[in-house]
Amino acid sequence: MAKEFGRLKRIAQEIKKEIAIILQCKIRDPRLDGMITVSSVSVSRDLAYAKVFVTFLQDKNEVEIAFNLQILSRASGYIRTLLSQTMNIRMTPKLSFYHDNSFLIGMRISKLVSNITPSYQEGEIALKQSLALDSVQL
């Protein structure tokens, strides 16, 4: 059975934290408007590559997301340099950025559930009233 790689998870968590700080404080590109959140980081076993999943907190369409990912990809060398200065690991992984749409999916599901809840409560009240009427008639 494969051993769970605790070290990889710790390194990925540290990379996530450091990239979030770098994106918030040190990247000053006016084309990157709004807040960028690092959702997760996936590191390869040999620490050569890291997939960085980001979320843009403003509502954006597909074109703006692709444009922002392209900007982040072009700045990945600079981000990697800053990351290597803050982290004490032998080899800093090559970064590739991906959009994480789980936040948008969660918001959509939450909205759907909140729309269903009032109709469910109305149906539950109607069911209780019909059961109460049936018991009165007996």
UniProtKB/TrEMBL annotation:
HAMAP family named among the record's database cross-references: RbfA
Q: How does it assemble?
A: Monomer. Binds 30S ribosomal subunits, but not 50S ribosomal subunits or 70S ribosomes.
Localisation per UniProt entry: Cytoplasm
- Keyword Cytoplasm (UniProt): yes
Report the coiled-coil segments. none
Which PANTHER family has this protein been placed in? RIBOSOME-BINDING FACTOR A, CHLOROPLASTIC-RELATED
Q: Which GO terms describe its molecular function?
A: ribosomal small subunit binding
The molecule here is called Ribosome-binding factor A
The source's domain of life comes to Bacteria
The role this protein plays is: One of several proteins that assist in the late maturation steps of the functional core of the 30S ribosomal subunit. Associates with free 30S ribosomal subunits (but not with 30S subunits that are part of 70S ribosomes or polysomes). Required for efficient processing of 16S rRNA. May interact with the 5'-terminal helix region of 16S rRNA.
Cytoplasm as a keyword of this entry, yes or no, is yes
Task: Return the InterPro entries for the record.
Answer: KH_dom-like_a/b, RbfA, RbfA_dom_sf, Ribosome-bd_factorA_CS
Write out the GO cellular component annotations: cytosol
Family under the similarity heading: Belongs to the RbfA family.
Q: What is its main location?
A: cytoplasm
Which Gene Ontology BP terms does the record give?
Answer: maturation of SSU-rRNA
| UniProt entry keywords in alphabetical sequence | Cytoplasm, Ribosome biogenesis
The protein's organism comes out as Candidatus Erwinia haradaeae
